[in-house]
Amino acid sequence: MNMFEHIDGVIAISGDLYVKTPEALEVLLAELRTTGYQIDNLRESDLRKRLHADVDVEMMEKNGWSLWYAHLDVRRGKCGSCNGLISVAGICCHGHQCELCGAVTYYKVIDGSMVRFSFVQRDGDEHGMADITMKAQRWDTEAGYLYLYPEIHDGLWLRDKQTKRYFEANRDKWEEVTEDGQRLIRVRYPEPWDYEVSAINPSEIHPHSWNHKIVLVWEGKEYDEYSRDFPLPKSISIYETWHWAPLERSPRLHERIIHAIGMVSDCGYYYQDGQPAFYDLHLENMRRFVEHFTELDLEEWDRVIPRTDRSGPGMIRAIAQLFGASFSIPAQ
Ligand SMILES: [Zn+2]
């Protein structure tokens, strides 16, 4: 059972929370905050206003959009040198230093990193797929230069003699320097990358040098970034159902139910050979959605769905028919 489902009027479906009344919402939000969640009000979210400027709040409510987003601030960096817990901000920028011990947490380019790149093509340059690989000596992010050893290796597009020709054809984009008797090639490559300034556009750089990992910290305990043992959901979408439930039967209601469990409602998306795409957990979550938020008699669901084949097309058609899809969904 979901840890917030003990609140009267809160239903958990596939990790999201559906709230039936404003009173239940108040209790839920308070409990989430006490637990340690930060809660974004999506009615007021700038991102939402930017991405969906044409959608007003009333439409969000009516169409059943998620209106609250609860999330835990538990991601931390763990310095590879001092083992201290540090902020994740900038931790993956070339040359970023640990705020506790000063050790560098990450180098994108080290001596010996292979850099596959294209020269940046501007007006008047010849265009086309072309790249070469060169070995890096160092990256001076302050001055915005990448230093490369002069040998030229194959790219993905160019091989052998073509690589040399390409390199020479872009003579205006690199210069030769000598440091301590070592001949090097220097190209403009600022951080962050900038079309106006950069001479190259790297498509692959490896290896990097990592001196940190990301961990999750909760109640003094550390977990791996992708640990399955982390005790709480890291984020939860919250829906206010009193604006739209119960949903009446309609030819497209099955889509809503299938999307609620994070599945695709297009038959053509799935294997067509009958192999299962829907599993027990999917069926349980859909059943809960149907029970709480639609007008369909649950007995009807239970008569049909457990006996339906669990392939993508099979399940989608069965649910669509249950909700009175008047069109027939064509076999793909
Ligand atoms: Zn450190």
What is this structure's SSE topology?
Layout (H helix, E strand, L loop, with lengths): L9 E4 L2 E4 L2 H14 L2 E4 L4 H6 L5 H6 L5 E4 L3 E5 L5 E2 L9 E2 L6 E4 L6 E6 L12 E9 L4 E4 L4 E2 L6 H9 L4 E6 L2 E7 L11 E7 L2 E2 L1 E7 L2 E4 L10 E6 L12 H8 L19 H14 L4 H7 L7 H11 L10
- Poorly predicted parts: none
Helical residues, percent: 10-25%
Radius of gyration computed on alpha carbons: 28 Å
Q: How many domains, as an integer?
A: 4
Distance between the termini: 38 Å
Q: Got a strand count?
A: 19
Helix count, DSSP H or I runs of 4 or more residues: 8
Which structural class fits the helix and strand makeup? Answer: alpha+beta
- Helix/strand order: EEHEHHEEEEEEEEEHEEEEEEEHHHH
Average pLDDT metric: 93
Largest sheet: 7 strands, antiparallel
Task: Write a structural description.
- The protein is of the alpha+beta class.
- It folds into four domains: 1-72 and 232-245, no CATH class; 75-106 and 211-224; 110-206, no CATH class; 248-326.
- It contains eight helices and 19 strands.
- The strands form four sheets. Strands 9, 10, 11, 12, 13, 14 and 15 form a seven-stranded antiparallel β-sheet that branches. It has a five-stranded mixed β-sheet with strand order 1-2-19-4-3, sandwiched between helices.
- The two termini are 38 Å apart.
- The structure holds zinc ion.
- Zinc ion binds next to loops.
